Amino acid sequence: MELKAKGFLFDLDGTLVDSLAVVERCWCLFGEEIGVSRDEIIHFIHGKPALTSLRHFMPEASEDEIKARFRWLEEMEASDTEGVIALSGAVALLQRLDELAVPWAIVTSGTVPIAHGRQQAAGLPEPKHWVTFEKVSKGKPDPEPFLLGAKALNLDPKDCIAFEDAQAGIYSALDAGCQVVAVHAPESMPRREQIHAIISSLTQVSVTHSDKNGVFTLLVSKNV
């Protein structure tokens, strides 16, 4: 399969880096403190901004209480990088994009300290453009994060390929008008048929040189 694009947008957690252990470690500690089960926490949090999850689990809390919990979680997640590693193919793909001078950005629900800490811990190339929690008014699944990502690259969203692993992020990218490559997508996931390509690893994709109009080709190999 081939997809054509002028730029690339990447989710971070679960797409470029494996930070699952850290995320679940910190959020389950939060769950223990407020009396919410691990299953409830894990089912809800992935792909969403932390404030969205905090307001969901603390509906009666004041904004001051929410903000205090947010700062506590941010500090814990930013300082805990044990077990954070680059997912297979991530470093090679980003290095290839830099080699070809392909515009790309990271679009994450994480804050600057968390996102930068994980990018560095995983040994990923530094993107020229970030869209983090601080830059959006509405997080995933709202399309705003990927709209901002395309804007940062000075591209129309339809000329961007977005890589995502979480349902909230996939919906965000689809509704922004991006072409979407999902790193895993359950058969039962709503809107699965709208996804442009589904892979199990970034090792299944490669990028070739652009044409005279700056359009690059993403080659997607079959899942083996």
UniProtKB/TrEMBL annotation:
<dbReference type="GO" id="GO:0050308">
    <property type="term" value="F:sugar-phosphatase activity"/>
</dbReference>
<keyword id="KW-0378">Hydrolase</keyword>
<dbReference type="InterPro" id="IPR036412">
    <property type="entry name" value="HAD-like_sf"/>
</dbReference>
<dbReference type="Pfam" id="PF00702">
    <property type="entry name" value="Hydrolase"/>
</dbReference>
<protein>
    <submittedName>
        <fullName>Sugar phosphatase</fullName>
        <ecNumber>3.1.3.23</ecNumber>
    </submittedName>
</protein>
<dbReference type="InterPro" id="IPR023214">
    <property type="entry name" value="HAD_sf"/>
</dbReference>
<dbReference type="InterPro" id="IPR051806">
    <property type="entry name" value="HAD-like_SPP"/>
</dbReference>
<dbReference type="InterPro" id="IPR006439">
    <property type="entry name" value="HAD-SF_hydro_IA"/>
</dbReference>
<dbReference type="GO" id="GO:0043136">
    <property type="term" value="F:sn-glycerol 3-phosphatase activity"/>
</dbReference>
<dbReference type="GO" id="GO:0046872">
    <property type="term" value="F:metal ion binding"/>
</dbReference>
<keyword id="KW-0479">Metal-binding</keyword>
<dbReference type="InterPro" id="IPR023198">
    <property type="entry name" value="PGP-like_dom2"/>
</dbReference>
